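To: structure subgroup
Subject: Chain for Friday's discussion

All,

I'm putting the inputs and outputs inline so they're searchable in the archive.
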Amino acid sequence: MQPRRSRSCTGVGDPIAAGLVASLARPGGNLTGFSNSAAELNPKRLELLSELVPQAKVIALLVNPNNQPNTGRIVEDVEGAARTKGVQLTVVKASTEGKIDAVFPTLVELHAGALFASGDPFFFSRREQLLALASRHAVPTIYIWREFPVAGGLISYGVKVTETFRQAGSYAGRILKGTKPADLPVQQPTTFELVVNLKTAKALGLTVPPAMLARADEVIE
């Protein structure tokens, strides 16, 4: 049996639901780190997408059915936000490259005016495919990672990943000096960034509200 190792990690939306820690304040084991709070930001992402594409009465949510229990929570959170905004939400699923390809033609049949690409490592790994399909089918799409709008996507809202990694490095240093992970609370991010690709918005025939441009941390022209 390999010895247990103390670890500091990042990139987990809900470490309690994932069974990684007992609580945020008292992890209780050999693991601590920084949550990316992806799930908690999902209602805001739906709100931003609805604000940017007000004519979309139906919004599709793309999830990976293999990513449980995160997928269930994502759907629940976004459904609640959709009800608040008075838009219809339809869930589309993809867990392979082929299924991602199949999603976009169905959006027309579903009368979806916009797409919410949920945060999933698989989707990040297939970002070139997602961006190409969103462009080809002219689907306004929001993502959680800034890499998407930087590469031509429409908009993203999420954790400032570089800051999370910097903080995780400080935790790793403390652990190497003898601090127990159980004594280091799981931290949640306080810095988020909104990135808007104005060129893509214009190509889609969208007018970005001035208030959104004013809030954006980066506007790509």
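Points worth raising on Friday:
Residues 1-10 have pLDDT under 50 and may be disordered.
The first strand starts at residue 7 and ends at 12.

D.
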